[in-house]
């Protein structure tokens, strides 16, 4: 999974992002590289998040993100790649890698 972290000040929603030329080029690259995009979504801003903790039988709920930081998780892309090297190449070509951070996280396979 590619965890996409970026500055939340970019107000573009999913429709605007998926129509951007750099994003279209990334999708085209994915198709030509043999990697597969299994799914993904842009997340709403962290200010709309609700954090839930359960401690000693008590549920604690707070508004907003768990951590205050300039870069927040803004979305994810679930990809299927041959190996870590291919996942790194795919992540490096993601448009948000140019100004944010793309974290690669393996998914537990059952």
TrEMBL record:
Residues in YCII-related domain copies: 8-108
Signal peptide segment: none
Cross-referenced InterPro entries: Dimeric_a/b-barrel, YCII
Domain of life: Bacteria
UniProt similarity note: Belongs to the YciI family.
Protein name: YciI family protein
Organism: Streptomyces xiangluensis
Lineage: Bacteria, Bacillati, Actinomycetota, Actinomycetes, Kitasatosporales
């Amino acid at each position: 999974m590619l965890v996409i972290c970026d500055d939340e000040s970019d107000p573009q929603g999913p429709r605007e992002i998926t129509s951007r030329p750099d994003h279209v080029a990334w999708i085209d690259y994915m198709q030509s590289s043999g990697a597969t995009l299994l799914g993904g979504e842009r997340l709403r801003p962290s200010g709309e998040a609700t954090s839930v903790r359960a401690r000693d039988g008590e549920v604690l709920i707070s508004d907003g993100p768990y951590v205050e930081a300039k870069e927040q998780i803004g979305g994810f892309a679930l990809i299927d790649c041959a190996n870590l090297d291919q996942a790194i190449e795919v992540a490096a070509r993601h448009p948000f890698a140019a100004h944010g951070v793309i974290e690669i996280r393996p998914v537990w396979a059952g």
